[in-house]
Amino acid sequence: MRKDDGVVGRVPPQADAAGDARAAGDARAAGDGADGADGALPDDAAGGPPLVQSLTRAFDLLELMADADGQAGLSQLADTSGLPLPTIHRLMRTLVARGYARQEPSRRYALGPKLIRLGDSASRLLGVWARPYLAQLVEATGETANLALREGDEAVYVAQVPSRHAMRMFTEVGRRVPLHASGVGKAILAQLPAADVDAVLARTDLTARTAKTITDPTVVHRQLAAIRADGYAADDGEYEIGVSCVAVPLSGTVAPAAMSVSGPAARLTAQTRRDIAPIMQRIAGDLTTWLETQDDHPATAS
């Protein structure tokens, strides 16, 4: 799950370097078996199987780095995880060797490139999981339903269920659209802190796709405030003339996400968008609940 930004604070690189050196010495003195990291955690309250302690701790460290914008030092990880420095040093050394973390020249640790591959696979799997809910959207609205995730400064479509209408919208899975000029993009932007929104807008230069594309940052922020208040975003020809879209934010995903329906502007009018928004919010909420259930009660291997 995604967590709020700013959970983990910053510490000076010098302190991290000192902590790294100290931890390395402690780890050599204690040995790789320090702190019982390869033992098993007790069964959970629901009677689940015992968990591998070292694996659980390694995942915890990766999540802490993700909360710290992808980078953290040993001292920082020790403060937030409560684990001994030798244990953290050994786990991070293993993650670096496997490509799931890397060590910067400053001695701080950062998320590694192998996580990108895992994220891509998770995005594709999310598309599979979402299809039944997108089918519900098509049944309820009659229009093509989509799911998109944020990837950098764009939204990428990871799933679609087409409308049954002869005249319908079609977007290839894998297609990318700008965040400021699309319904799904604006629903995603509305989930980000204002500083992150400003950074995206500055990098993309608010390029116009049509005469209706919003290119004024002040207007974009005003739209995002309305999206947060209303719970849905609209795109009336901002990305493609004659095409209308309504999108709702989706929680519980590997990256900021949104579900949308799109269709000809003649069918998907402003009133129609207002009418179907509550239906979309309910179905998106159902998908979020299901995703959270999977996260809280993961399948167990026999």
Which sequence of strands runs across the widest sheet?
8-7-6-11-10-9
The CATH architecture of the largest domain comes to: 2-Layer Sandwich
Alpha-carbon Rg, integer: 22 Å
Tell me the strand percentage band.
Answer: 15-25%
Number of domains: 2
Please trace the helix and strand order, writing H or E for each element: HEEHEHHEEHEEEHHHEEEH
Q: Which structural class do the helices and strands define?
A: alpha+beta
Total DSSP E strands: 11
The CATH C-level class name of the largest domain = Alpha Beta
Shape: elongated
Mean pLDDT: 81
Could you tell me the CATH topology label of the largest domain.
Answer: Beta-Lactamase
Largest sheet: 6 strands, antiparallel
Features:
single chain, 302 residues, Arc Repressor Mutant, subunit A, Beta-Lactamase, 2 domains, 3-stranded antiparallel beta sheet, 11 strands, disordered N terminus
Fold and architecture overview:
The chain is α+β, with helices and mostly antiparallel strands and 302 residues long. It has two domains: 13-112, Arc Repressor Mutant, subunit A (Orthogonal Bundle); 116-296, Beta-Lactamase, CATH 3.30.450.40. It has nine helices and eleven strands. It has helices at residues 13-30, 53-67, 74-81, 85-98, 114-141, 183-189, 194-204, 217-230, 270-296, and strands at 40-41, 51-52, 71-72, 101-103, 109-111, 144-151, 154-161, 176-178, 233-236, 243-250, 257-264. The strands form three sheets. It has a six-stranded antiparallel β-sheet with strand order 8-7-6-11-10-9. A hairpin with a 6-residue loop joins β9 (233-236) and β10. α1 (13-30) crosses α4. The longest helix is centred in the middle third of the chain and has 28 residues, at 114-141. Residues 1-38, 42-46 and 297-302 have low confidence and may be disordered.
